[in-house]
Amino acid sequence: CHGPFRLRPRPGRPRRLQHYRITDQETNGKTSTASSNDFSDPVYKEIAITNGCINRMTRDELRSKLAEFKLETRGVKDVLKKRLKNYYKKQKLMQKEPVNGDSYYDYICVVDFEATCEEGNPPEFIHEIIEFPLVLLNTHTLEIEDTFQQYVKPEMNPKLSNFCISLTGITQDIVDKADTFPQVLQNVIEWMRQRELGTKYSYTMLTDGSWDMSKFLSTQCRISHIKYPSFAKKWINIRKSYGNFYKVPRKQTKLTIMLEQLGMDYDGRPHSGLDDSKNIARIAIRMLQDGCELRVNERMHAGQLMTVSSSAPLEGAPAPQMPRYRN
Description:
The protein is of the alpha+beta class. The chain has two domains: 1-99, Transcription Termination Factor Rho, Rna-binding Domain, Chain A, Domain 1; 107-307, 2-Layer Sandwich (Nucleotidyltransferase, domain 5), CATH 3.30.420. Helix content is 35%, strand content 13%. Strands 1, 2, 3, 4, 5, 6, 7 and 8 form an eight-stranded mixed sheet that branches. The longest helix has 20 residues, at 77-96. The relative contact order is 0.14. Keywords: Cytoplasm, Exonuclease, Hydrolase, Magnesium, Metal-binding, Nuclease, Nucleus, Phosphoprotein, RNA-binding, RNA-mediated gene silencing, rRNA processing.
């Protein structure tokens, strides 16, 4: 194969240049300002040829080539292919048109609530938040810069089930001594304000799935008689982002499976909200390193979960404010 990779197709497999059109999703919404929908530029032909070569490489060939470029070599074959394709595409497009590094979020705020639960998850059971963790990911350094964790005292069902204690590691004594949700939310907002999120620095929220915001936070706000906080109305659902970016089915986007496919082990105690959040942040870091532009893809509107289009403008969350009480 031609180009700076000098990739060689495997013996006996002739190279075929197939008709190829890079979609908006594949370019993560980035298009050339000169011709936003014109892919006739020769650079896209080069990228298409190289993608074909990468598709025919063995796992060992992929790892060798990634090592040559000093890139991460862990992960399943599909992850390695995506990593190599994105590296090459980024190099070619940067030559063509430098990327404006100021347009992306400065921080991503990862949240993974723990809530009261019963064995078998009966449908009528009302979940209350009992742990509110935050992990602050700096998108410039690609490092976890800070963390927040507070436990929450449940009010409707103040006694935790044995199943809940065993699953989360949160004991009855811990929640008995904790503040109620409105006070913990006030502490969260103060913590975010001290880090100048939404004022000096742009940021967005990120979750592992839709439930944290659309179910747990939404339900908890109703229980606590407060309006839904504006800073949490839009977020990145990393499961959707991961599935779209690495082209894997939804059943392969559970936290432990995502880590495994990226060649990483879970670090800490599963179902600890803070440890789950840290591991979700590790996945986000690896995706950003692999060239994925994580974008808001879900939102709450009039109490309903909605999808946000990948072509929507990239906007940060507002400066956090304590929501008003409601009857």
